[in-house]
Design goal:
This protein is 29% helix and 24% strand. It is α+β, with helices and mostly antiparallel strands and 890 residues long. Strands 1-2-8-9-10-11-21-17-14-13 form a ten-stranded antiparallel sheet. Strands 6, 7, 12, 18, 19 and 20 form a six-stranded antiparallel sheet that branches. Strands 22-44-45-48-46-47 form a six-stranded mixed sheet. Helix 8 packs parallel to helix 10, helix 12 packs parallel to helix 17 and helix 19 runs parallel beside helix 22. The longest helix has 23 residues. The protein starts with a strand and ends with a strand.
């Protein structure tokens, strides 16, 4: 059993989807509607933490709860059928071996933001399509097509039964019943609306203006409350009201229905369907702020022609948004990558919450998310990325840490008033990596000289001290002793992040892990823990920052303006002994904090590019040499790896018996590992971390210990989440690091293993796309909302296909394996670059293996190029047509 792709845009079909547990699918729009839908139309719909239309669901609710978007059909005034399979009878039939009482045949068809279930029952073929229009309406649409497949005419009466939760997710366990007493339920000509009188949750008691409604075209009656619909002893899978003969819905909703759990129960007129005859219904789940205006706004969606046009527009809209296409010898891989390319868009809509596995948070994104999501935007939708990047730097504190509460608006950061201190030591790594990719993609070195403010709140000194002098009314922007808000260049912000980290070292002269690093579950070594893995990435950043500063000098910018206090961190005497001296480093950082934690002096200095770049490069090189000297573990002549961590008892986490993938990834990516060491790491990872049954490379070996001196991950069962699962994010970064060092075959093995596993639905049990991780049984977990999608997109385009920017020019350096080319020795990719639509076609003329071929020539519009294509050439192309770039490999 597997899904089948039905188009190169990633549309797919799957037979009997309800026989797989935990399946869910996202449908949403950019106006704030976020829904999840299952093969039986369970799931939920919401517009935020405090605006849930249906009750919030976690993964376990998907099979535990009876609530769904249920569409009932009463046949010949006696048999009751659920068109979405959420009835007691349908559930009993799922595993029936009785040929006289079989399960309904079903098929799922889906694509970007639409979900269609076809069900064949005794009397009917029903097709229910759910989608959220890609326009600005705050609605979810259900288009229902019904056909009489019986041998004779049937009487049929349709009833909807969609519970309307209409309140905050917090109320699931905080006054669930009491908040139902707030419900005021009304009917109109076409539907039922719920407007609670007020809300009370963590925000306090407030008057409510939000209205929730379920509408259909001309119902003859209503079931406005769950209690009345299910009856005594009944439930939503076997409601007593449907057994009345004839059905007896309320003609009008009155005050007697106030104060109960609400139901979008619409009862339509009984009709006769002849054999082969069809009928359609349009059901609208809508959000609004005014009862009268809500019904007016949805009337167009009660017309079938309008609904079908809206559906087609929605499909087209999202297909065009995903403006990257792939062609290799594996069509399934090309289609899978379409879904991977779509996933960063889902992250921007849902944040890190609001899908069934993502049952935490309130929809916001974290610091890493801000930067990683920009990676995908740079490739697919780069127009607003510059302003987004600049605005993001407003979250950097002067101590090199950053705000952890991200606001809804771009560049909005919120002070943590709960007095909770947490510092992730890796947070300073990601901004540079993303900004560097932007500069390479656009050639916009001048972004380094753009200015922004610094964030300020209670937290100073990298989380060790509270700023008693700061008050909320002071605002969240760092000021000078002159009382003015200070603005520094983006380059200065990067220097602050990376230099403060350089000096913030522990007992072994590696950067302290503080609250955690990328692995949030290494969270119990705050006092003495060190992250060698990410120390190596700070070395990488320092060296690459030096390169950018040298580039600025070549453009005539020979001095960099900085606030005076940072001069002590740049340390221009280049005394290597100071780097070896842990006490000296701590003293430098302590003095820096004393001078600038609350206010800056306001004095600025100008330092020469050469002095700054030499200092940065020397620091980066020192870190790498220190790691190579102290942390390499030689298992055998052929196997070896780096230790990447120290625990809270100052002990190495890795040794000859234990290995972590994260440590190796960043040693390779940063250039800390020599080529000989990379070869040994690859062999060791294959031996100790690779497991084909779960999709490839596990995050770590089994420590078989609950390490209370390192992190909560050691309390997880091995093979789950951060403790030894195949964690897609790190696996993809492993691939990226290998490609970056030109270990193409090893890099492809990582991606191919993960893809093959996800593509095997009978094992992965997820719909197309990449999950956060794969559990011990092989099931994909935490689907859709994962930063690994952005990293995979960048890896495949920039490294595997080798199409990337080089200071704004278009560069080609493919690392496609011979087996990835089709039968005509061709592979291609379509994408945007410099605002133009390009299709790069690689022709491997002599069918050579990777590293055997090289780029011979580039042909664009009849012109031949031999290296890069200059940006000025690309920018002169027209916006309204596609351009082919033929790349000959010989």
């Amino acid at each position: 059993m597997n899904y089948k792709y039905t188009s190169l845009d990633g549309d797919f079909s799957l037979v009997d989807p309800e026989l797989t547990s935990y399946l869910y699918f996202p449908i949403a729009n950019e106006s704030g509607v976020m829904s999840s839908v299952t093969p039986t139309l369970a799931g939920d719909s919401k517009m935020g933490q405090n605006l849930f239309f249906m009750s919030p669901v976690s993964a376990e609710n998907l099979h535990n709860e009876k609530s769904s978007r249920n569409i009932w059909a009463k046949i010949n005034n006696k048999e009751v059928i659920s068109l979405n399979g959420k009835s007691a009878v349908a559930q009993a039939q799922l595993f029936s071996n009785d040929p006289s009482n079989p399960k309904d045949a079903t098929q799922l068809e889906a694509g970007f933001m639409y979900h269609k279930i076809t069900r064949y029952s005794k009397y009917l073929k029903s097709m229910i399509t759910n989608f959220v229009p890609a326009t600005n309406e705050t609605v979810e649409i259900m288009h229902v097509d019904i056909e009489n497949t019986f041998e004779s005419e049937i009487n049929i009466q349709i009833v909807t039964a969609i519970p309307i939760y209409a309140r905050s997710a917090d109320n699931i366990r905080d006054h669930r019943h009491v908040t139902s007493l707030l419900n005021r339920i009304y009917n109109s000509k076409n539907g039922i609306m719920v407007q609670p009188t007020m809300t009370f949750d963590e925000r306090g008691h407030q008057l409510n203006s939000k209205v929730y409604g379920v509408f259909g075209n001309g119902p003859i009656g209503f079931y406005p409350t769950i209690e009345d619909f299910i009856g005594e002893g009944g439930n939503l899978e076997n409601p007593k009201a449907l057994y009345e003969i004839p059905l007896n819905p309320a003609k009008i909703v009155s005050e007697e229905h106030f104060g109960y759990e609400a139901l979008g129960g619409l009862c339509f007129e009984e009709i006769i369907l002849q054999p082969g005859q069809k009928v359609s219904y349009n059901i609208v789940m809508a959000y609004g702020d005014d009862i009268d205006l809500l019904e007016q706004s949805i009337e167009k969606f009660l017309e079938t022609d309008y609904v079908l046009n809206s559906l087609e527009y929605t499909k087209k809209y999202w297909r065009e948004k995903v403006n990257v296409s792939y062609h290799t010898s594996l069509t399934n891989f090309d289609c899978w990558m379409k879904w991977v390319s779509f996933q960063p868009m889902l992250r921007r809509i849902y944040g890190c919450s609001f899908l069934p596995h993502h049952d935490y948070g309130k929809g916001g994104r974290g610091w890493r998310d801000l930067w990683q999501d920009c990676l995908a935007l740079l490739i697919m939708n780069p127009e607003n990325v510059k302003s987004m990047l600049i605005d993001n730097f407003a979250g950097v504190r002067i101590d090199g840490t950053n705000a952890t509460i991200i606001g809804q608006k771009q560049g909005e950061f919120i002070a943590d008033r709960n007095n909770i201190t947490r510092v992730w030591m890796d947070h300073g790594v990601w901004p540079f990596l993303t900004l560097d990719l932007y500069i390479q993609h656009t050639g916009d070195l001048e972004i380094l000289l753009e200015k922004n403010t610094y964030f300020q709140d209670l937290q100073i000194c990298r989380g060790e001290v509270k700023n008693s002098a700061w008050k909320v009314e002071d605002g969240q922007k760092l000021t000078t002793s002159f009382g003015t808000v200070y603005e520094g260049t983006i380059l200065e912000h990067l220097l602050v992040q990376n230099l403060t980290a350089f000096y913030d070292v522990g007992h072994h002269n590696h950067i302290r892990i503080r609250g955690a690093d990328w692995n949030d579950a290494l969270d119990m070594a705050e006092k003495n823990g060190e992250s060698v893995a990410f120390t190596s990435m700070y070395a990488y950043n320092l060296e690459k920052l030096a390169d950018l500063i040298d580039k600025l000098e070549k453009k005539g910018i020979r001095e960099i303006e900085l606030f005076q206090e940072i001069e002590s961190l740049i340390d221009m005497d280049l005394d290597v002994d100071n780097h070896e001296n842990i006490g000296s480093k701590k003293e430098v950082l302590s003095n820096y904090f004393k001078n600038c934690s609350h206010k800056l002096s306001g004095v600025v200095v100008k330092l020469t590019n050469g002095n700054i770049s030499r200092s940065l490069r020397q620091k980066g090189q020192w870190i790498k040499e220190h790691i190579r000297k102290e942390e390499w573990i030689e298992k055998t002549e052929e196997l070896g790896w780096f230790n990447g961590y120290y625990d809270n008892n100052k002990r190495k986490l890795e040794n000859e018996n234990h290995m972590m993938l994260t440590s190796q990834v960043f040693m390779i990516m940063s250039g800390t590992a020599s080529d000989a060491q990379v070869g040994k790491i690859i062999k060791a990872a294959d031996k100790y971390l690779y497991d084909e049954n779960v999709g490839g490379y596990k995050l770590n070996t089994n420590f078989k210990e609950i390490k209370m001196d390192m992190g909560r991950m050691y309390g997880f069962a091995y093979g789950h989440k951060e403790n030894g699962a195949v964690f897609a994010h790190m696996a993809i970064m492993y691939a990226y690091s290998l490609y970056s060092r030109r270990y193409s075959m090893a890099g492809y093995k990582v991606i191919e293993s993960l893809f093959s596993h996800c593509d095997n639905f009978s094992v992965s049990k997820i719909l197309p796309g990449i999950p956060e991780y794969i559990d011990a049984k092989g099931r994909g977990m935490y689907h859709y909302l994962t930063g690994s999608a952005s990293w995979l997109l960048v890896t495949v385009i920039n490294k595997m296909f080798g199409v990337s920017g080089e200071y704004g020019d278009l560069s080609f350096d493919p690392q496609l394996l011979r087996k990835q080319f089709d039968k005509n020795n061709v592979a291609s990719i379509s994408m945007m670059f410099a605002g133009k639509k390009i299709k790069v076609i690689y022709t491997n003329i002599y069918n050579k293996e990777v590293h055997e071929y090289k780029v011979n020539s580039l042909i664009l519009e009849g012109e031949i190029y031999f290296h890069n294509i200059p940006r000025k050439v690309i920018e002169k192309l027209k916006d309204d047509r596609d351009y082919i770039i033929d790349v000959i490999l010989e």
